[in-house]
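> run fold AMP-dependent synthetase
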Amino acid sequence: MNQPAVSPTLDTLFQRTLMRQPHATALLDPLNKARVTGHQPRRMSYAEADTAIEALSAHFVESGLPANSVIAIQLPNTVEFVLTVLAAHRAGLVVAVLPLLWRHAELTAALNRTAARAIVTMSTVDGVGYADLAMHAAAEAFSIRHVYGFGDDLPEGMASLDDVLARPPGTTRAVIQDGRKAAMISFDVTAEGFRPVPRPHFSLIAGGLAMSLEADVKQGATVMAAFTPMSFAGLASSLAVWLLSGGTLALHHPFENDVLEQQINEHECEVLIAPAQLALRLGDSDLAARMPSLRNVIGLWRAPEQVAASDVWIAPHAPLTDVYLFGEAGLFGARRGEDGMPVPVMPGPHGAPREQAGSSIAGEILLTPKGTLGLRGAMVPIAAYAPPQPVGDTLTAQPPRDYVDTGYAARLDRASGAICITAPPSGIMAVGGYRFLSNDLQEWARRLGQGALLTALPDRLSGHRLAGRAQDNARAREALSELGLNPLMVEAFRDRSGAA
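> ok
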């Protein structure tokens, strides 16, 4: 009897490389990890990583987490994040990724919306007590049964995963590895508000393939991932690209330029994946002499409308691939030519690699009737972005939609026919990877007191940055904290004169 074809999962890809080269280096921690989390940096082979994954997976099962339940993860860009994601998948769990910049209110909302059974965090990240944040959010989420943490001085009631890694693995359960099963839940902010976005394994792998094939990432490459992993793009660009290449994944918790350069040279990284503006800044600093091992640079654009006007890439030994990100809806990539300029992106199906005849279709780009950019393809979660049912038409079937409207304003260039992305979705701001409705600023400003000002200014690196003015900046931070803003977000508040 013939068995039906089963698409691979992320754990399937990991175990393929494990069987082929168990003693090859798999994971490398940031060199400054001791400052970021208090842990010493780790260097793990595939066999060592597999043992750690098996131990964490068994612990999740022994804790009583049922198969297909949701486990939320709020971790920095370190080895613990990779191990936890793969362990959750091996235990048959669905991972919900929670950005580090989230407020307490959003953290609680995400846990409740996904009915998460557990949450995993780090005791501290950059001096901020994430263990306490997780415990407070878990207290308001009725579905949470377990709170796990890495690091020292964990609060009472939080189980230490460092202790789990220090002892032999327990008994795990057999899980059918099928790429069509749910793998992750990320979260987007649209004009309709906060939106959970679930994805199967094959969708994540499709995103990783679109990047790795367009950028021509070689098998066995050492990949430096310097992009926050708490999103679809973050997981696809780090975890999926690494597992597809079967090489080594070096991690950098954003951002310390000197440390990043040291890591790239010390580990002889061949691929750098980073926010595009950071990549362009590195490219202007004699990249061939300072980081000679690099052969590919993948720049991720959180603000894709900025690509066309970006600077010329002047490091021909390591070509730049522009990856256009559209929140959690999807992405596409376009490798720059020898002139270093962004290449025109045409509407319609696009392959990976884009310019290679007969290449596999990575997705499709289209212009919607509203003059916005639409996406369809294997990586695009169409159901998650389905428009709300009109009031009063609950019994009327809505016409099917086979694409996601990203909300980004776009038009066709008359001369070339290429897609021109002109503006981000109306009413949405982004500070780094943190997206919020512009109306939220009014509520935040109101809490700052009489005569205060808070606004989001365009920023080439992070999309927007918060800027403000208040008579008492100490009171301003206190008010923002009372509102529930994450402490890292509060630190983004600065007086316009430059004083903190």
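Residues 428-492 form a domain with the GMP Synthetase; Chain A, domain 3 fold (CATH 3.30.300.30).
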